[in-house]
């Protein structure tokens, strides 16, 4: 071996060894990333934003500074999506359900009782189906990085326990701004009122609406127990969150910066899902402590609900969603335990 070759090998080796710590040798510029979210800093969402920020700092030698803005202080989900598209804000996390005004196909996740458990959701969201939907955001000016878990949604209200579907009759129930939700809860006999999450607590407090539906983690962290006496464990929909970046902004990043962002996002996803799942059990106990009257729905009643919303699936399919729905159901079938 020539001396030259030996030297080359040695420097190559040195570079490989140094690579993980040599963030400064990468093409990474100091950047401030404004990251908006709807829940409080103390929520599972807030904790995951903090984790994401720390990961980015670690992986970029402190150059990529992610600043979290909680409590919808940069706007509601829909306002933030538009700010990302326009390039006025860099990043956010929010419900996939609020994306339907931009990519209608995201509504497919909102059909009730699709996923049986979190494992099915993870496999489908992180697999080809979920990733294809994420890719469809690009032509709309958004980049989807990863799905986080919002969780299985449950009903709360201030009027009465809901043990059978008829108990929902006449209840003014806030839903996300999404036609599948409006359709579903009207079929259940409630009066569905679409409203941004950022306006929800006040709407519940003032009695503009009687109830709402969200995962137990959110019901706790947003203090809905202060204005809602009853909770029904219905788990009617598994709700994903999605971490989004402005495409305008993302396109201006170097390849190294994008890679760091993607990898930190995946780390944040794994952290967030684990944390949210642990928090779910704790939240339930805390909500009981806070005095909420909590009941489950019987299998028979859940069966009635499934029957009742069958036409919602037909409607969704007839509105152009047939292939998408079939595709999703096929992906779920692949991972479903017999
Ligand atoms: C927070 C929302 C929330 C969602 C909702 O911005 O609107 O009910 O469940 O998590 O995205």
UniProtKB/TrEMBL annotation:
Coiled coil: none
GO cellular component entries: outer membrane-bounded periplasmic space
Xref: Pfam families: DctP (PF03480)
Entry keywords, A to Z: Signal
Database matches in Gene3D superfamilies: Bacterial extracellular solute-binding protein, family 7
GO molecular function, one term: carbohydrate binding
GO biological process: transmembrane transport
Signal peptide positions (record): 1-25
Protein name: TRAP transporter substrate-binding protein
Species whose genome carries this gene: Azospirillum cavernae
């Amino acid at each position: 071996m020539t001396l030259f070759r030996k030297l080359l090998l040695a420097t190559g080796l040195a570079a490989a060894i140094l690579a993980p710590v040599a963030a400064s040798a990468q093409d990474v510029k100091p950047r401030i990333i404004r990251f908006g979210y709807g829940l409080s800093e103390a929520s599972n969402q807030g904790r995951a934003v903090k984790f994401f920020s720390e990961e980015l700092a670690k992986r970029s030698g402190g150059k990529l500074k992610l600043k979290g803005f909680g409590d919808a202080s940069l706007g509601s989900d829909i306002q933030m999506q538009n700010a990302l598209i326009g390039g006025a804000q860099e990043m956010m996390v929010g419900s996939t359900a609020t994306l339907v005004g931009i990519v209608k196909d995201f509504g497919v996740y909102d059909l009730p009782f699709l996923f049986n458990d979190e494992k099915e959701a993870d496999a489908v969201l992180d697999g080809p189906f979920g990733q294809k939907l994420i890719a469809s955001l690009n032509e709309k000016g958004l980049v989807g990085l990863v799905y986080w878990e919002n969780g299985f949604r449950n009903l709360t209200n201030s009027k009465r326990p809901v043990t059978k579907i008829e108990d929902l009759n006449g209840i003014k129930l806030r839903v996300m701004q999404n036609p599948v939700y409006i359709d579903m809860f009207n079929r259940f006999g409630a009066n569905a009122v679409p409203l941004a999450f950022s306006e929800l607590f006040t709407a519940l407090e003032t009695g503009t609406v009687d109830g709402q539906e969200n995962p137990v983690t959110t019901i706790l962290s947003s203090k809905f127990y202060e204005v809602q006496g009853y909770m029904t464990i219905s788990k009617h929909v598994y709700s994903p969150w999605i971490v989004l970046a402005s495409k305008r902004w993302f396109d201006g990043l170097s390849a190294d910066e994008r890679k760091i962002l993607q990898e930190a996002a995946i780390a944040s996803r794994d952290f967030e899902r684990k944390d949210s799942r642990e928090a779910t059990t704790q939240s339930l106990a805390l909500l009981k402590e806070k005095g909420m009257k909590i009941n489950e729905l019987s299998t028979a009643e859940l069966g009635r609900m499934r029957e009742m919303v069958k036409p919602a699936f037909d409607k969704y399919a007839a509105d152009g969603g047939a292939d998408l729905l079939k595709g999703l159901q096929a992906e779920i079938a692949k991972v479903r335990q017999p």
